[in-house]
Amino acid sequence: MHPINWVIIIGYISYVVVDGVRRARGTDQLEGYFLANRGLPWWAVGLSVMATQLSAVTMIGTTGQGATDGLRFIQFYFGLPLAMIVLGVTIVPLLRGARVFTAYEYLERRFNAPTRSLTSFLFLCSRGMSCGAIIAAPAVVFSAIFGWDLPAAVALIGVPTILYTMLGGVQAVTWADVKQMVLIVFSLFAIVVVLLVQLPVSPDEALRIAGTTGRLRTFDFSFNLTDTYTFWSGAIGGFFLMLSYFGTDQSQVQRYLTARSIPEARTSLLMSAYWKIPLQALVLLIGVLVFVFYVFSPPPLLFNPAHESAVREHATEEFEALESRFEQAWTVREGAARTLAETPRRDPAAADAAAQFRAGEAGVNAVRAEALDLAQRVTGQTPRDVNYIIPHFVLTFLPIGLAGLFIAAIMAAAMSSISSELNSLSTATVIDFYRRWVRPDGSDRHLLLVSKFSTAFWGIFACFVATYAVRLGSLIEVVNRFGSFFYGSILGVFLLAMIRFAKPWAAFFGLIAGMAVVAAVTFLAPSISFLWHNVIGAGTVVLVGIVLSAGGGRRQEADDSLDIDWRHHHAE
Amino acid sequence: MNPEPGPDSERRRLRRTLVRVLIVQAVALLLLWIAHARYHVT
Q: How far apart are CA A250 and CA A103, in angstroms?
């Protein structure tokens, strides 16, 4: 990579760390360190919410998915806007009114300590591992394209993030998120402009070529529980997933707990309601345009450079034969694409041109499938190279400077998610466990010190998971699957909290029943999309909770004065 | 200190926000639908 690109990347990292350390001033108390004294403006909180959700996986994985699968992934987010509005009138006033540090802290006030501890513990297990996976995704790609050792790539992303999160607390996290979000959006628009300039066909013709392969299929109205990317899975399953993620996951809850007031917290969430779908469409569109770009410019047979050099070294003849066939197939497809672009839409020959192009596309895909198979045999690793499509385009075809900016944006996307997660992991550890069970009378100064150590601990843990992520692959899958058992169930506990007659132990046993039912569904009907697990989990907890609460006994053991009536809580 | 907004003004504000969000989503979905209808070939 050109030295100017490296200067941009190093400049970006240095700036983020220095600015984060500068933000450490004024965070000498626990409320300042974790919640910025509840004084941040809505727009900064809103950008932080969006930056937390948008990770490096979005920048390299989702764009790659756009290139191979098209726009249909957008349906995943169809439930998000409504979820944000619902959270704005339910969870936001509930948690803000309770003046809690963590979402789970509220559950002790409403129900009991075991419910709080269990939900917080589940959050720590799941987020601790997922934080490692968030570092691993870009680190694995960087190590392959730059030829670095994986630990070095992990350290490049992880160490600066741990530093500014540990020293600056939520102030550093939020203001870094703001700048990182600006960098991400700018680089996304820049890449679209470059693509449109470099494509040899008009945007209309480019979309027509992509549409011929089904990549502009945005809506699928079939009702199929096994398919994640349909209108109904996104609108219903996605609605419950977004309610869970933004309403009960501390990594997001903590963002809007830092807002100045309930209306500002609400508005910060609505920023995602307005902009998430358009932004995600832009990300996927970049992938679609990169696909069209490679229709006219020869792509590599394997996008993962580490796999390519391994295969070239260990199966030279077989790979060269495949490359030769790939070149022929690509030439046929390119010719068909030019014919398709030159044939007017209403021309009787248009259908034939489209069929020719689709046949050419099938030919290219067939050789690619053989090459991926060979890569798997040689390396013993998963040959999937979707995550390498955009980095290859960026490093090969973007102008000097812009390539560095885009790599910095990938790092920014990773760091903005990791920092929020480390910050929230530390909050849950200190508030829900250390201060609750170990040192309830600890001074602010002592708890602040523990919080910083806790942030560093989770950061190092995440780096460790990321470094061994390839070897821990199956373990991470187990953890992710375990996570899907309780995500909807925790939402169910919060829904139950809004039902006045719900009893403390009903919530606890409802949570366990919800997780058990989702686990049973996962094993007995593994083909059902994980989006529906959230609906099943939340529904089971509410149902079981209501039945157990109706069973008699005392209404509530917890302090009733803390039972906030969310329906009448309008402002602080 | 600003006076707290009353329930009625909160409700009106929420309704306005709901309408705005729905309009933005409707426009975004309409654009996606146009792309789907114009370019997607089965």
A: 6
Residue A58 tokens, joined: 């979005």
Give the tokens for residue A399: 């102008």
**Cβ contact A278–B7 (<8 Å):** no
Contact B32 A217 (CB under 8 A): no
At A465, which amino acid appears? Answer: V
B3 touches chain A (CB under 8 A): no
DSSP string, A5-66: HHHHHHHHHHHHHHHHHHTTTT--SHHHHHHGGG-B-HHHHHHHHHHHH--HIIIIIIHHHH
Structure tokens at A426: 């530390």
Residue A293 to chain B, least CA–CA distance (Å)? 17
- For residue B34, what is the nearest residue in chain A, using CA coordinates? A218
| C-beta separation of A291 from A210 below 8 A | yes
C-alpha span between A285 and A207 (Å, rounded): 10
B16 contacts: CB under 8 Å, gap ≥ 6: none
* CB-CB neighbors (< 8 A) of B6 in chain A: 570
Question: What pLDDT shows up at residue A468?
Answer: 84
Asked whether the beta carbons of A39 and A259 are under 8 A apart, the reply is no
A430: DSSP letter:
I
A45/A255 Cα distance (integer angstroms): 6
Contacts of A274 in chain B (CB under 8 A): 20-21, 24
Of A88, A216, A571, the CB nearest to B36: A216
| The pair of three-digit structure tokens given for residue A182, joined into one six-digit string | 């600006």
Extended strands (E) in A144-198 = none
Beta bridge partners of A259: A40
Res A474: pLDDT: 59
Q: CA-CA distance, A37 to A233, in Å (whole number)? A: 39
**Token digits for B19?**
């309408």
Residue A559: what pLDDT?
A: 41
Cβ atoms of B7 and A565 closer than 8 Å: no
Low-confidence ranges of chain A (pLDDT < 50): 555-572
Looking at CA atoms only, how far is residue A75 from chain B in angstroms?
10
DSSP state for residue A259 in the 8-state scheme:
B
Count CB-CB contacts under 10 A for residue A446.
Answer: 14
The pLDDT of residue A568 is: 34
Instruction: List the one residue out of A255, A311, A276 whose CA is nearest residue A42.
Output: A255
Tell me how crowded residue A347 is: count the other CB atoms within 10 A of its CB: 11
Q: Tell me if chain A has a CB within 8 Å of the CB of B4.
A: yes
